[in-house]
Amino acid sequence: xxxQVKIQNRQxxxxxxxxxxxxxxxxxxxGWFLVIISMIFIIATFPVAxxxxxxxxxxxxxxxxxxxGRIVDRKPKGPGLFVVLPCTDTFRRVDMRTVSxxxxxxxxxxxxSVTVSVDGVVYFRVSxxxxxxxxxxNAHFSTRLVAQTTxxxxxxxxxxxxxxxxxxxxxxxxxxxxxxATDPWGIKVERVEIKDVKLPQQLQRAMAAExxxxxxxxxxxxxxxxxxxxxxxxxxxxxxxxxxPAALQLRYLQTLNTIAAEKNSTIIFPLPIDLVQQxxxx
Length: 282
What we know:
With 282 residues, the chain is an alpha+beta fold.
């Protein structure tokens, strides 16, 4: 909010500096003489001259009037009807609507020495028609050039990870830089967006291999944790079974039931371990 107030103050100050001394009284005696002649011509050809004197600007337009090369008023005319004097007055129409344009893909070297191709889109509008006409030859074309330069300058200070993860912050940085650069031209940058970031093919393959290796390592860690938990569970189960020999026999019978349910042709009858141990002792 404070930045917007400062920008508006700078715009008003720049406009006042430009047109503060430009008033109808500064055209001189010769200028007034030409103005009087022009008025006499209008009166003499009134029915016809009205079509050349009355102009119309739309709701989204403003007209900056020059009289003998000087600004007529401190502010532009419009919207609606306004009058110009033939032979002495000229005017420029200024469109106040928001304009958007695409920033062509720019080859940019990031902070960590990676070459990427980045493009974007900029939305801006004319905030001060008088300043946009006087201070720059073509405000729209100049804004396009500054946007390309600003894109390279801002992204040149970021590494690849920041470029891929923090697009919103980069867009805000570009908007602030563009708004400050175009403020003397009466241009207000409303929004900047990063559209696409194209990486080299070799870098894409390397990043894909890195991501795959990361996923495989995570899978191995998860499998190892599962084996560890399973071994702990088996250890606890063995301790419970060791406390009750009858539980071991019930486990044998449960295993036989499971084998029989699977329709196997071979059935294995496990012998009790206690019986085998007596033969081993003998």
